[in-house]
Amino acid sequence: MKKKRSKIVAFILAVCLVVIGIPQMEVYATSTLNQLQEAQQQMQQMEQEKEQVDQERQELEGELGGLNQQHGSLKAELDSLNTELAEAAEHLAELETQIADKEDEITKTRKELEEAKATEEAQYEAMQYRMQASYESPDTDYLEMLLSARSISELLNMADYISMLADYDNRLLVEYQEAKDAVAAKEVVLETELAELEVLKQANLDEQARINDLIKTTSAYVQKYAQQISTAEAELAEIEAEIARKEAEIAAQEADIQALQKKYQEELLMSQLANSSSKRDISQVTFEEGDRYLLANLIYCEAGGEPYEGQVAVGAVVINRVLSSVYPNTVSGVIYQRSQFSPVASGRLALALSQNKATASCYQAADEAMAGVTNVGGCVYFRTPIPGLTGIQIGGHIFY
Description:
mainly alpha; 2 domains; three-stranded antiparallel beta sheet; 79% helix
């Protein structure tokens, strides 16, 4: 882009050197040179605007990169928290299963304990009953049993039987007591384990609550960054669209400048040709009705605020073209030649003609020009001064 701009500037400088080096040459086309300069300035401004938009895009891309990085980190953290929560929930399910099993085991143990207590009590009561019966009725039961023996041997056997029966009762009672005590001890252990499981369960619930709070907070941040990313992406899309528009405008402007350069080169050749071509004498020109009115109003549009000498000079440029074989040979043909006088294209001349805006001095200047008077020699162009351009300066115009 900058290389193209440098080439255009170099081209303009080269043209200026050509003009300076060829004195008294009517070489500059006012409107084309103005357009070329304005187009060049507009392109420079467009490039500056595009550079500014490019800078904004770079800054926004950097900001967007940071947002995406933060968003990615938060999403990774959120995934990790969700994994932790799933593991905690799984652990809680295991604890609840263990607690349910432990509660079932405790229930069974309590039932066993109740049964052991009942068995112990029943056995104890049976022993008490037999012992009480033996002591309360000495003439019966054991005593009768012993006395009924028919021999020593049978007596000894009965005594052994009674002793074995007492030992059996005592042993059963001890076993039932031991069983009851074991079941009671087991109940204590199970209750302790259940309490520990309940503590673990509560700790797990607390941990899940903590993780849920973190998930809510992190999710809010993820959503916040996602919104910021969406906004930044929309802004970036707008900036990229603006950059595309700027690039299109610059490309169009470059095309306009190239077209103006081509046109300007053509006008340079035209001006050189006009300078070297044959010219008619003013006496050979036949003016048509309305030429004076037309020329006076053009002078008004181009130099209405200039001194009288400047008005005469504008009229002389028109007549110089009429006299040249390069341009149309009539006043109307010269004035309405395409892209030559800006008041024609802008509509100012048509407005001036419709209201006859030309002043008395404009009419006088038109009369002098149509009589062959010129204060700018053979110049066929004029414009406002620009650096590097030389010629005959009258008022606010330089004539070439």
